[in-house]
Design goal:
With 118 residues, the protein is α+β, with helices and mostly antiparallel strands. The N terminus is likely disordered.
Length: 118
C-alpha cells in the first residue's frame, strides 16, 4: 500500500504534513519537544488557546487532570516557555496551567513567556 503522505522527492506538492501550521500541528510539535516523561504527563492534559482581545494577550491553557500533574508541569516552567516561544513565537505571551475543580476550570499558575530580546 502506498502512503499518500510520504514524498520521495523535494516536496513538489507543498510542505510535508508534519510541518503544518494548524493548531493541532503546533501542539504536536510542542508535545514532541519534551522528553518521554513529560510527554506521558502531557498526554493526559487538554489544551486550548484563549485570546483576550481587550488586552491583546493570547494564552495557551493546559488543563491538568489533577494537582500532581500541575505541580510537575510547574517545575518545568522554563522548558515550557522556551518551547512555546520556539513554536508560536510572539503570538502566545502566556501559558496558564489550569486544573478542573468541581466542574469549573481555574487557572492556578500563569507563566509569562516573553520572547527573548537579542
Amino acid at each position: 500500500m502506498i502512503n499518500p503522505f510520504y514524498f520521495d522527492d523535494d516536496y513538489s506538492f507543498g510542505s510535508p504534513p508534519e510541518e503544518d501550521d494548524t493548531l493541532s500541528g503546533r501542539l504536536r510539535r510542542f508535545h514532541e519537544l519534551f522528553d518521554s516523561s513529560i510527554r506521558a504527563i502531557l498526554r493526559d492534559c487538554l489544551f486550548r488557546v484563549e485570546e483576550d482581545y481587550t488586552k491583546g494577550i493570547a494564552t495557551l491553557q493546559i488543563l491538568c487532570p489533577n494537582q500532581a500533574v500541575l505541580k510537575r508541569l510547574s517545575k518545568k516552567r522554563d522548558r515550557i516557555c522556551n518551547n512555546v516561544n520556539s513554536i508560536w513565537g510572539r503570538s502566545i505571551q502566556q501559558v496558564g496551567l489550569c486544573i478542573n475543580e468541581n466542574g469549573s476550570v481555574s487557572q492556578q499558575v500563569t507563566l509569562q513567556c516573553r520572547y527573548p530580546l537579542y
